[in-house]
Amino acid sequence: MNPQIANQDASQVELDRLAELSQDVIRRCIAAGASEAEVGASVDSGLAASVRLGETETIEHTRDRSFGVTVYFGKRKGSASTADLKPESIAQTIEQACAIARYTEEDPAAGLADRERMAREFPDLDLWHPWDVSVERALELGLAIEDAGRAVAGITNSEGASVEVGSTLSVYANSHGFVGRERGTRHMLSVALLAEDDAGMQRDYWYDAVRSAADFMPAAELGRKAAERTLARLGAQPLTTRQCPVLFAPEVARGLIGHLVSAVSGGALYRKASFLVDAKGKRVLPEFVDIVEDPFLRRGHGSASFDAEGVATTKSALVEGGVLQRYVLSSYSARKLGLASTGNCGGIHNLIVSTGDDDFAAMLKKLGTGLLVTEMMGQGVNTVTGDYSRGAAGFWVENGAIVHPVEEITIASNLKDMYANIVAIGSDIDPRSHIKVGSILIERMTVAGA
């Protein structure tokens, strides 16, 4: 039998087993007095192999199991989990969850998602692509990536290359009668290289992340790209403090969209811990910006037909014409706000940010003279106030051309101002994330340096 077909069959058998166990546990929870119950079960399997300087460094096989039980006694909630699926461990987990719920304070917002919101359609989103790669082949691939990078003149050392193979099987079931099965694969290649000149040593890396190994960029190309990025950083200089336009490269630009999502997420909103409280229906981005959530992208990094509590996902606008159309809510946060779930328990699904026609070279021309940011450091983002101050590295650009690399700087502003002052969004989308966005040009920020 074809190994991939055998893998698929084995995964379906495992999903069926987890589903049957989940339904049995729910019945036992109800029999123990719970008014509602839900179960989340998953099995993660993987292989990680790494090489450094032409030698094998690590080989790791993983298989992690999780089985979580949540019960509700009216508005009182209790949760417990185990990694052991033996009958005695399951029985103890049910008992612990029920015991916690009986003595927990009531929470008016507690409970399962509404029954009528449960997903009923489960389209094939093309997320399951098991990679039947041997350890030997994984190591060969890692060596090919590293060798290609080290072969580039000027590269002096390597922190190694890695090959990661991963698959997840998961089941969510609840006492509404909902049983949702999901399976997905995620694979990654990466390499980090070093170069040195009279000014010192520099390091950079590159990686590729895909659902299907058939979609990987060629190994040699990945190694060379990491080498080119590393060499480009040689001779990096600090900048004097100034205000200037800032262009965020695609791989860091998605973080700006991530901060927006965090600020309009239910937990931050009902705690009043967001600078975008009461922002629905108001302009938060320039008029030319639309953001659509599309959970149904085939092979998408965030694709799913239901969220972490079984609510059906839908394709819908988050931002339209720069105006915030809705929040990002689970059932719990929605009840706290007097609203309805948006199918986002567990997070957002595939955000697609509208772009212009400008590729990266054209975005540099639009930047003119200013800072190109390619790496961010630190966690200096306050979602309560919107204050933004983070370490950065990148390149100083003059008249649309890169002049020299830059390091040891901090860029600062306020997210509200940054979003309002977005000048353009490039077509150079980074496909390695569930946030699909190109480079983002902001009209002015403070750059603090020497």
Given helix and strand content, the structural type is alpha+beta
Q: What is the rounded Rg?
A: 24 Å
| CATH top level assignment of the largest domain | Alpha Beta
DSSP helix fraction = 25-40%
**Main sheet characteristics:** 6 strands, antiparallel
Question: What's the pLDDT, averaged over the residues?
Answer: 96
Describe the overall structure.
The chain is an alpha+beta fold and 450 residues long. It has helices spanning 3-31, 87-102, 135-150, 219-232, 250-263, 266-270, 331-337, 360-367, 415-420; strands at residues 36-52, 55-73, 76-82, 155-174, 179-197, 200-210, 242-248, 291-293, 316-320, 323-324, 351-353, 370-377, 387-398, 401-414, 422-425, 435-436, 440-448. A six-stranded antiparallel beta sheet has the order 3-2-1-4-5-6. It has a five-stranded mixed barrel with strand order 7-12-13-14-17. Strand 5 (179-197) and strand 6 form a beta hairpin. Helix 3 (135-150) runs parallel beside helix 4 (219-232). It is globular, with a radius of gyration of 24 Å.
